[in-house]
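Table S7 (text form). Paired inputs.
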Amino acid sequence: DEVWRYVATAWKLTLSDDQKSLPEFLREGLGRFEGRRGAEELLYQRALLSSGQEALDDLGRALDLRPKYPLALLLRGVLRSRQNDLEGAISDYDRCIQLWPRFSQVHVNRGLALAGLKRWNEAVSAYTEAIQMNPDFAMAYNNRGNAHGALRNFSSAVADSSPAGRTRMTR
């Protein structure tokens, strides 16, 4: 199908030395394929190139076309977190987890947003989910240690934050 060939060419441009032509290529593709299956990929690619509200708008349009698009949900969650829309980020991460439950980074991102709202117990649970999926995920241990510290559960904080504690916990 023509739209998918266009999407593949856009990804090739993304990985090439000729990225200067990519924004125009994406704009042209969106004009040609607006509303068609596959256009959400072009919107996602354009969101990767932009920031702020423009990226959020593109991701919203991509999700209108394909509501079950975990990468778009993940990226929108990240952008919402950066804009301090933590509840919106959590909502996107929750939807992403429903579609992609074994992707440990989404659980960590969710934990970070929960920690930003000082919902420490929920943050600990999110980090624990990530650790259960990926026992060597140091970022999850460190963030869980920080959340335990905020809860004044210092023995758990030290266990998560020290390399010896992580080694003991993963065996």
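Next pair, protein 2 of 2.
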Amino acid sequence: DGSRTETPTDAYLAHLVANGILAFLLTIAWGLILAFGAWAVGVPPVSPLLVIGWTILAAAVVLNVVPLFQVLLLFSEQSSREREIEEVLPHAVSFMYTQATGGSNLSQIIRSVGSSEQTYGELAREFQAIERDIQYLGVDLTTAIERQGERTPSAELSRFFIDLLSVIRSG
């Protein structure tokens, strides 16, 4: 996925569901506290079924709204990453070209961009992911680049990786 959160997808979804359920339970508790608190201070009683019904309805709304906001936040984060990557991509391409003309091979160039997190930020993390795929998953360089091209949130970086693969494959 292009979100590149620090949390694995299954853990993120579990967190999303847990937050929704917690919000649901808190809304029910709050509704009951308000209803019985009002009754305790002398507000004319309302049908308990009506109070419970409205409380459950409010809780159901909250159960759906809380995860929705979390998903919107995730998309906002993805969009922010995409902008940051695309902002520095031209500078990184110039840097890679300079290294290539200086005699560095592609693995060295990818490692170099990946280790320049201060300069390239999110773009460097994209290149670090290529390094991780090669180092820990044992995939070859072209497969790692191809995978990262599919995962990145940036359409421009994805196109760059496709073009880079074309150059690698054509020799």
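Residues 48-101 form the longest helix (54 residues).
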